């Protein structure tokens, strides 16, 4: 397409902002970032590219079809990369309404406007266009310790309002490919970690609490297993899927790092013991506090990434050891960012969620 522009939804969030930074560092295409700027959306994540002429930010809601329609006609993107979502399981348990509105209705609105826009393109432009649905491994449900890892053909069995809303969005995206031939590609990723992650999630929460001498909450017995994927590796995989992925297909993206939550927290504490020996409480692991488990807590996720390895030649670059060290250092070196997001509403959420 003559106008080599990519539309990113939710690009001020954790993964979206990392993707935009990664994209502009490696690709010539321009980026339009559409973000509603909810509590987890932070334009400061993208301060490094504020003056880049290839980047434009627009505040808007993916549920507003008039906004989407005007944006598509005005900027004529050759692809839509759809990150915009409510994504925190704990928040979905306390208040699922926002998750249905954004993740289901918002994705439907985006698909409908994308279909209208795509239908008006000429044949060459239609062939080049892609709609990338960025999803999660949580749609597959929970695995027993002896179960094989999730593959792209694993039956969907979501267990939380969050994962159910993402599963619904994935089904809509699949339906738009099969019914309307909209060139959709879907990715399902494992747990991401890295720079710019909002501190309600396990890894940044553990870092911030440990360095502040506060109790580090760990749900239940800490033995829930997740596959941990460094966000930079995820973004590289998404660029490959967008460039060479087959329409109508799904690609699992994982880090090949299955670890229990307790192992993750202890690894963070070990890095901090080395880097921050003068913190208020050392060893940092002495701050670990087991708290009441959340309802319906999935026991284990694991990803089989053979398909993306074979078809696109992608595999993660970071081990958990190298990735967690980079992540801890980033949080230690970016105190201004932490202070900006660590506001009253966040502190109230933590107090209510963990009774701390």
Please outline the helices and strands.
Layout: E1 5-9, H1 14-26, E2 30-35, E3 55-59, H2 65-75, E4 79-82, H3 89-94, H4 97-119, H5 123-128, E5 130-136, H6 161-180, E6 184-189, E7 191-193, H7 202-211, E8 216-219, E9 225-230, H8 231-244, E10 250-253, E11 258-260, H9 261-275, E12 288-291, H10 306-312, H11 320-333, H12 335-341, H13 344-354
Parallel strand pairs: 1-2, 1-4, 2-3, 4-5, 5-6, 6-10, 7-9, 8-12
Antiparallel strand pairs: 9-11
Helix pairs in contact: 1-8, 2-4, 4-6, 7-9, 9-11
Key features of this structure:
single chain; 356 residues; alpha/beta; Rossmann fold; seven-stranded parallel β-sheet; three-stranded mixed β-sheet; 44% helix; globular
